[in-house]
Amino acid sequence: DRDCAERAAHTPKSPGVIKLEKLLDAAEAAIGRNDRALQQANMAFHSCIAECAGNVVLAQVMESLAELHKSEQGAMLWLGNSREVDHREHIAILAAIQGGEPRRAHDLMRKHLLGVRKLMAARLAELAHARKVRWLDATRESEPAAADLAANTSA
To answer: Which one, of 95, 111, 84, 103, lies nearest residue 17 by Cα?
Structure first.
């Protein structure tokens, strides 16, 4: 995706760039209103960048993966809860592509993808920790009952 953003910036006037603009308009309209439409626009944005880079095969693979992993993408959208941040990052990536700035497009896409990865890792760790705490609390709550049972059986 980083390399595709870089390559797409070499042709900032391509018809695909207009499609990127329309996808971001659709994403903006969906923020806070329709997560499914936002998810579709965001995934199409990434696929379209591959198209703009001339990598039709990668674009098709990305579209297939997006379709296959729809539910996971929805969970990431909910879990990450960074709709506006993601949108601003997409706008910056598009601006670099439109400005014919390959290095900047590459760097912004890299930062975006790493940010998503770090955010997901942090949120999943938080959930795992919360689940562990709940499990420990439940275990502690049941321990006195077990101790009472042992005391009652030995008497």
So the answer is: 95
For residue 36 the two structure tokens come to 């499914």
Do the Cβ atoms of 1 and 52 come closer than 8 Å? no
CB 1 within 8 A of CB 109: yes
67: confidence class by pLDDT, cuts 50, 70, 90: confident
19 CB burial (10 A radius; 0-12, 13-18, 19+): middle
Q: Is the pTM of this model over 0.90?
A: no
- The H-or-E segment that residue 130 falls in is helix 102-154
φ, ψ at 108 (rounded to 5°): -65, -40
pLDDT at 138 over 80: no
Six token digits for residue 128: 């795992």
Buried b (16+ CB within 10 A) or exposed e, 122-154: ebeeeeeeeeeeeeeeeeeeeeeeeeeeeeeee
Whether the Cβ atoms of residue 44 and residue 84 lie closer than 8 Å to each other: no
Amino acid in the structure at residue 25 = D
- C-alpha 141/C-alpha 52 separation (Å) is 58
